[in-house]
Amino acid sequence: AVLGNAAEHATAVRAAMNNRMDLSLSIAIGSSVQIALFVAPVLVIISAYASNQFRWGPTLSLAAGLTLFCVFVFLKGLGVPLPILGPWFGG
């Protein structure tokens, strides 16, 4: 998985150097989604095991600001114009 993501990142950088920002961003977002879809379930399983092992309460809780920021980043990745974050993909 690490070698595949390294190759994806190298391709994204090469596409950006060739002024193909649409390809570069789609590769980078796709790679990030792959990592997130792998890491999130693993963290949930590890936190459930750790909470039972060490007698903690639920350990996976997100702050409201973090959740709101993740929603903004997700919408910006879809191409929804958000004046709050600025025009970073304007060609």
What does this molecule look like?
The longest helix is centred in the middle third of the chain and has 34 residues. The chain is mainly alpha-helical and about 90 residues long. The protein contains three helices and no strands. The protein is about 70% helix and about 0% strand.
Task: List strands and helices in order, with pairings.
Layout (H helix, E strand, L loop, with lengths): L1 H16 L3 H34 L9 H15 L13
Helix pairs in contact: 1-2
Mean pLDDT: 75
Distance between the termini: 32 Å
- Structural class designation: mainly alpha
Helical region count? 3
Oligomer kind: single chain
The portion of residues assigned to helices is over 70%
Please compute the radius of gyration using only Cα atoms.
17 Å
Overall outline: flat
What summary fits the major beta sheet?
A: none
What order do the helices and strands follow? HHH
Give the structure's gist in a few sentences:
This protein has 91 residues and is an all-alpha fold. It has three helices and no strands.
Structural features:
91 residues; mainly alpha; 71% helix; flat
